[in-house]
Specification:
The chain is mostly helical. The chain has 22 helices and 5 strands. It folds into 4 domains: about 150 residues, Rossmann fold, CATH 3.40.50; about 50 residues; about 100 residues; about 60 residues.
Amino acid sequence: MEDHSEYIIKLLHKKNVVRDWISNKYKENPIIIYGVSGTGKTSLANYILKDFTKITINLDFCKSGKPLNEYLDMSLYKKSITMMFDNKNTNKAILFDDLNYIQEYDKKLFKQIIDFSKKKIKDHPIIYIFNHINHKNIQIIYKKAIPINLSFTKNQYISIVNKYFTCPPKVNVNELIQKSNYNFHMIKINLDFYKNEGHQIQEYDIKEDELSLFIQRIYKYNMNDLYRVCSSDYTIISLNILENFVEWLWNQKKLNYKKKIKLLNEIYHLNCLGDNLLTYIHIINDWLLLEHLLTFSVVIPICKLNKQVKIKSLIYNKYISKSIIYTHNIKLLHQSNITIDQLSFLYRLIFYYNKHRTKEYLQKIHFFIQRYSLNIKLIEKFVKYFDLTISKKTIQQLFKDL
């Protein structure tokens, strides 16, 4: 049977372009695949690179905190067991995925990717994936790449769904596509959930820049609808709830302090259960347990909150960027051979010195700095985490007196 991605390549009249690129053209230009969420960008990239050993840079790579160039140097030029015994996998390819997310949440990595894109790489096929290409830095890649825009007409959507999705006779395919926001992931989820009752599918819109509105909508959904609409974005939704619910909770004047603390503890506890379950799912590779993950991470927290807490404002979560900053800070402390506890002790000394201005405290501070060979930039960087009353000017003066 013809592959779904192969069929899409034919629909977009890119068959010859892809064939020529795979055979030799990749030495001249990378490919950039772009289009809205749910159009099959990653699936298409994986199909194009199916005969190569693939190195993927995506959101998971962000968590590693590794420098891009070092990682690629090690990955591209290290012989693998597969390459030794499989003549087909003689080349390694690079796939840059989730790039709009990386652009927003990991500026450092995104800059490294832009710098990498300026190099002339002849030996390895490279594919970049974006949701949109409006940003000036993305245009740097776009101008050098072979573009594939995953944008379909209504008839093409219908053709793809009829050919590759099992639609019961009672389901109106055109209505299904519209209510699934022209998103293939959601089309599959809605078919699995509603089966012969496609007319019951509720229409909704979940664009990246409208996530706050989406969460406000699902806040009022019943339990069955929560499982349906959150099944593909459960991580993003749960993190956004965690980012915002404390403020929602504290704004509720009708709840006493004890009830607020109890509810706060319950929501965090449920998310911990969800995280543990996700780890277990990955270990045993049993994604049939996904509904249980949704239960702990999204469904029960929303059901508990919407009975007692109203949404007033909502900011987009920064958990990914916070995790990256935390990892970087821990690395800096490790390189300086100092712990958070020792830093806390130093800032406490500085606090008392500011208050009393005695020679005794000054000597202790100087001794501590010299004992651990502390760098002024390190002390200035971490002070905001410990004591906002200590100014950089005070720290600079302490180092100047050494």
